[in-house]
């Protein structure tokens, strides 16, 4: 999911976000990976080449990106917030053993019949989280 620099700039501009080096770097990093990193992992990645980012700037950039809907939070473990730039509807596989989270294509499962919910509930969205042991942990 690697995107060209101007595609990233245009995505930020389309959401009326001012393009700052931190927002650009954080969003570009998230688009390049599908491992649902935490803010700390993004920070570590960004500082690999030039150590310029601080935890606060990464958090601030993530918050701005989340508010305009370019990234979303994935909360599968208590107290751990991970980030995802894949906005297509999809499900997640989570291995609690090593913490890995990977995407499951939406059409892997039959759609749920939301009509069967009790009256009075207005469903807006759902997604499936499959918990289990990944191949690496099985070895
Ligand atoms: Zn695992
Ligand atoms: Zn995902």
TrEMBL record:
Family: Belongs to the Fur family.
SUPFAM superfamilies to which the protein is assigned, alphabetical: Winged helix' DNA-binding domain
Alphabetical keyword list: DNA-binding, Metal-binding, Repressor, Transcription, Transcription regulation, Zinc
InterPro entries registered for this protein in UniProt: FUR, Fur_C, WH-like_DNA-bd_sf, WH_DNA-bd_sf
Record: residues binding Zn(2+): 95, 98, 134, 137
Protein species of origin: Crocosphaera watsonii WH 8501
Signal peptide boundaries: none
Cofactor note: Binds 1 zinc ion per subunit.
One Gene Ontology term of the molecular function aspect: transcription cis-regulatory region binding
The UniProt record lists the keyword Transcription regulation: yes
GO terms under biological process: negative regulation of DNA-templated transcription; regulation of secondary metabolite biosynthetic process
Identification of the protein by name: Ferric-uptake regulator
Keyword presence, Transcription regulation: yes
